[in-house]
Specification:
Rieske Iron-sulfur Protein; iron; Rieske_2Fe-2S_sf; binds FE2/S2 (inorganic) cluster; Rieske_2Fe-2S; Nitrite reductase
Length: about 100
């Protein structure tokens, strides 16, 4: 948990899958971090009011459900993953990967 910036993101890679972890005023969120537009790292985007903006072309995604917010185009939504906090550890449920991510 301490490794996560306040109001920002961090990229972790699990089995070649990019996972963006975000600590916000609304809680901690995990989403697929590869932008569906052109593959930028969403974990480097600015976060405001629970929304991350892609650092390249500024597409916006809601962290709570991964919804793409700039058009009615659900095909651009990103996956989200349940996050559990145990003390200083962050556990992310990744359904396609048998292991969880742990940050200490
Ligand atoms: S790469 Fe993310 S909006 Fe273009």
């Amino acid at each position: 948990m301490a490794d996560l910036p306040d109001l920002g993101g961090r990229l972790v890679v699990v089995d070649e899958q990019w996972i963006g972890l975000f600590k916000t005023d609304q809680g901690v969120f995990a989403i697929d971090a590869m932008c569906p537009h052109a593959g930028a790292n969403l974990a480097k985007g600015n976060v405001c009011d629970g929304v991350v903006s892609c650092p390249v072309h500024l597409w916006r995604f809601r962290l709570s459900d991964g919804k793409y917010l700039d058009a009615d185009a659900d095909r651009f939504n990103v996956k989200t993953y349940a996050v559990h906090i145990e003390g200083e550890q962050l556990l992310v449920e990744l359904p396609v990967v048998p292991n969880s991510v742990r940050l200490i």
